Amino acid sequence: MTYTGSLLSIDKNLQIPVYLQIANGIIAHIRQGVLKPGSALPGSRILATTLYVHRKTIVAAYDELYAQSWVDTFPRKGIFVAKNLPDVTPRNIVADSKTGSYPEKTFFMVDQNKIPFPEVFKAPPAYNLIINDGYPDTRLAPVELLVREYRRFANYHFLPKYLTYGPEQGSENLRIELARFLADTRGLNISPEHILITKGAQMAIYLTAEILITKNDTVIAGDPGFLGANDIFKHAGANLELVPVDEYGMDMDAVEEICKRKKVKLIYVIPHHHRPTTVTLSSERRMRLLELATRYRFAIVEDDYDYDYHYSSSPILPLASLDYCGSVIYIGSFSKTIAPGIRIGFMISPKNLIIQATRLRKLIDRQGEQLLEEAMANLLKNGDIGRHLKKSNKIYHERRDMFCQLLQKNLEGLVEFNVPDGGFAVWMKYLNGIKPQDVAEKALSAGLSISNGTAYFDDENYQHHYIRAGFASLTPKEMEDAIEILARVVKKLNGL
Amino acid sequence: MTYTGSLLSIDKNLQIPVYLQIANGIIAHIRQGVLKPGSALPGSRILATTLYVHRKTIVAAYDELYAQSWVDTFPRKGIFVAKNLPDVTPRNIVADSKTGSYPEKTFFMVDQNKIPFPEVFKAPPAYNLIINDGYPDTRLAPVELLVREYRRFANYHFLPKYLTYGPEQGSENLRIELARFLADTRGLNISPEHILITKGAQMAIYLTAEILITKNDTVIAGDPGFLGANDIFKHAGANLELVPVDEYGMDMDAVEEICKRKKVKLIYVIPHHHRPTTVTLSSERRMRLLELATRYRFAIVEDDYDYDYHYSSSPILPLASLDYCGSVIYIGSFSKTIAPGIRIGFMISPKNLIIQATRLRKLIDRQGEQLLEEAMANLLKNGDIGRHLKKSNKIYHERRDMFCQLLQKNLEGLVEFNVPDGGFAVWMKYLNGIKPQDVAEKALSAGLSISNGTAYFDDENYQHHYIRAGFASLTPKEMEDAIEILARVVKKLNGL
After folding, report:
1. Which residues form the signal peptide (chains A, B) (predicted)?
2. Which of A44, B125, B134, B435 is deepest in the core (most CB within 10 A)?
3. Nearest to A104 among B100, B266, B350 (CB)
């Protein structure tokens, strides 16, 4: 097919001269492959007629293309797309780059240690049974209800409001409903202005760290602990001080020891079902922690992601509910309440911090998903979230009991664990020196994904025998199958 | 109603001693208001019977409550909820705090200048006509199609995959479809591994800046320009060097001047419809910019958010499509293609930078909305996005023409503007020294929201007479009404 140039569009009202519009259009066609190297271009007279422009304009366009090496001209033959298309990069500088292929590396330096924490997501093989690290069962998530709410918003009259730019602090409706929900469930006496809606608890921790921490500030966290938070604090420039976690939570004597030695900026604490060990911070230690924060003037970052799931006892009310002086930043998430894929979390603090966090949030991603936030506000308002929690608490309670019984029955003498009072996982120790890595590897080839014990201790090389075994995402049948495989593997490693 | 304690739950398998479980449960009830100050608690014998525990356990629980000052005991009368409930904060330190109310300020210092850029979102009055800064019309967004895709995923078999943790780099399906889409529309020769899915272009700029910039690095941007990006570079510690923008885009002589004086780390450029002035960077300047980047080894951040909307001429292919040495980071967004509320953007670069950006992204918010990303992948795959672009390009083209004609007709001699070749807004100057602030103020009281001219120039105090007037979100009727009000206001300010 002969190229006629009829697809070139011209607008004489534009600031760009017409000859350049034509040249750029032809370059586009060459780059898109519409015009192949070596193919003929129409004569200037013909193209001028096609495009209703003066012939001189076409000559100027062709001159431009020739100057940029996009075309070759041969006297008495005409003008042709160049066989060697222009490479705008001087070849001697990047000798190794291949024309036309996307470069392997940037031309400028990128510090590969700027963020040293590697991405880790690997999807497990689809045919596998999974004992995960302790997540809710996504199959129980009220997605039908979410979609119902989306449908409600997919309405001509709502769209101008919820599909455009909105409040950086998050949906006002959601903050109103959340303040009510947190008052009812946690005794928090806050108003919507104290809430910033984030993408999961992760973003709340990130914002807090970036605002509060300056280089070499001391941050205290538990060991073992949640490395996803530790990485954020390290990235913000903090020196981490780790304190042991026992059956009552973080060791407050150790915390006070550190406070006496140096100025502490903040402490990161998971008061319910400490991740990974599932212990709950005792009431005495909570009181002690608040006193220490007041005495030594540090911030408490209270990550209470697991508050909504208790099977045995009432949850202890958050530190934030007892905090009358503004020591506590309270963080929570619907990612655990509903599903990890629902990326709605929140941070709660006095307004001077919320303002700074909101501004940073605006720099990072402008705002959250308004439709999702509005849908969640409605689900909270009409009680759907409450009903979901009630229903899923019952199911997870049963699953916890069954999981612990199965462990007891099938792995007696081979593992050690305490029954957790809530949450989604059991903190379990392999006895007789069996290594989690070995179990994970053997289990995988038998069709079961299970933790290999990494990402619990800050020293990744520390050899221990613990894993988190999530029970919440397994139906009774899956649980039986999974523990049967696990028992077989562990017994074999024990020489049984 | 007498409090019997029957709602207290106990689990003997727990790590927490039973007496503490009981004490904590009672504290929770006090805090929730189930137990009022001064109300009687059941005797230890009675409560022991109710809860099936030894009486000593109840005595220990009450001792704990007394020690923590939650209860008072009166000999021969019994045990009562304390009238003055414990305030865990020593009063002398925070004399101004009121017990029970949420604190006004944090107890620790928060630097209010850490992020100096204030949040700005203000919803306009609902009854107003709006000439916005140039956004797509959300009423045209294919939300019905999005909801259709959501429904498809709200299926038992998909949920375990898409509602749990997923790839930090973004949906693989979306990256595959996007690579195809970008090859078709922009001549970009990339594969999915070169793409990071972000929350809007904003997050892509943030990640790039945080990874590449160290304190006092020089960054070049246009003036006037997009202050949302400038704020990010300043926050990352950059020294901004501003270069003028004329009718062919950023002044490359000025860029080279700076390069000769000092080491430049990166340049931020909006090649199509520069924000705010709507000019397109000419082909010669594009070539020149790539050459300068290669010679002076700086990074080009190419924010091409407006590529998909051209009404008069073909778009010029991205710098990234001509970049064989890895100088260019290409940034785009569906927030402009579809609606600002759809927070999906992307950055494209060689893998060494994508790896770092992905790791930082994981620290910030773990991952994007998988359901939304999968839905968008399907819309790209089955051509819905292509059809939407075709349809909306036609509509916006007509709206641009009509808007410019109305301006011409109603405000001749009072404003000056060029017809933009694409995008969503006209860059318009009020003549005769009329100030944008005055127009905006008077227009607002007449029922029209319109830009007051801030947020275009880096020096916010610079007195100029320009605004961006968005035509894309206005129907013909709304447009007529809006420009009628505008004309009335501007004429009055001109004394006509």
Report:
1. none
2. B134
3. B350
